[in-house]
Design goal:
With 178 residues, the chain is mainly α. Helices cover 57% and strands 6% of the residues. The chain has eight helices and four strands; from the N terminus they run H-E-H-H-E-H-H-E-H-H-E-H. The strands form two sheets. A two-stranded antiparallel sheet has the order 1-2. Helix 1 crosses helix 4, helix 2 runs antiparallel to helix 3 and helix 5 crosses helix 8. The protein is globular and about 40 Å long.
Amino acid sequence: MASDFQRQKVSPVFEAMDANHDGYLAEDDFRALTTRWVEVRGGDEEKLAQVMMGWWEALRTAAGRDRVSLDDVMGVVDVLPSSPEAVFGTADAMFTAADADNDDYVSQDEYRMMIRAWLGHDGPVDFARLDLDGDGRLSRHEFAQLWMEFWAGDDETAPGSYAFGPVSGVHEGEELLT
């Protein structure tokens, strides 16, 4: 079963993706996410739509329904550690979508653009914490590691746990507040 920490870090992302705020993710929410990506990033709408709708199809299939609740998402999160190939596949697609200049790195500006597209606002992301080798950009490998730590991890100290910003109730060096 997914932990309280996992729920606390995934919930804001779920809520941001739930475009009509009905408590479920559905195909229309992913189309709205695609539109947000295109508005924020620009670029190839077809490519971005393919990434977002591919992610929706994987989530819909894993949950086994066309309307996916937060509990359904948490059920998927719970099994992701045993399916790293699925996580790395979505990480690769998201990296490609975020790499606006196609230089095979995600810069701090590109990362912030990705967060704005996902969350619908500029989130307080500590990019330096995420930049594992300190070179000012994320390689495909770094991005995949962070993505895995966020979606499949349960380690409050892992940099990727904060890929979408601070986690409510978690303070550096303290236990999860419930």
